[in-house]
């Protein structure tokens, strides 16, 4: 399977490599990521190594894409991922790299790939009410809030509600 790389000229999305394990730990071992994502906490190098193995299995079986968000294909600044069957997209950007539009660009880029290459008519984000940063990313990336029933998720000792935001494939001419 050929490695996947996507770019919009401002960010480069690429597959994770063994050389990224230390960076993954630095990016994802922080309170906001622990609170908002299902990633292990603490997210040390052992957790990063296990996560990388799971990412590779998911890519090999075609169920998920996990791509490092970079500026130039080098150092990872975050991750964007897509569950292929349900078209569910998610992202996490390291604390030192937030507020620079990386999540918006990566989300827009992967949603376009999902529509244009994978043929998904609909891509969704599931966002907890009050998560203003993720709501801003959704708006900026062209997603809209749906009236679908909220999803209740339990994990990491808490229960939270997620609202569905959707990005529809452009209509065919």
Order of helices and strands: EEHHHEEEHEHEEE
Question: Main β-sheet, in a few words?
Answer: 5 strands, antiparallel
Number of beta-strand segments? 9
Proportion of strand residues: 25-35%
Please tally the helical runs, counting DSSP H or I stretches of 4 or more residues: 5
Radius of gyration: 15 Å
Net shape? globular
Distance between the termini: 32 Å
Strand order of the largest sheet: 1-2-3-4-5
Spans of at least 5 consecutive residues whose pLDDT stays below 50 are: none
The averaged pLDDT comes out at 93
SS-derived structural category: alpha+beta
Tell me roughly what share of residues is in helical segments: 25-40%
Q: What distinguishing features does this structure have?
A:
173 residues; alpha+beta; five-stranded antiparallel β-sheet; four-stranded antiparallel β-sheet; 5 helices; 29% strand; globular
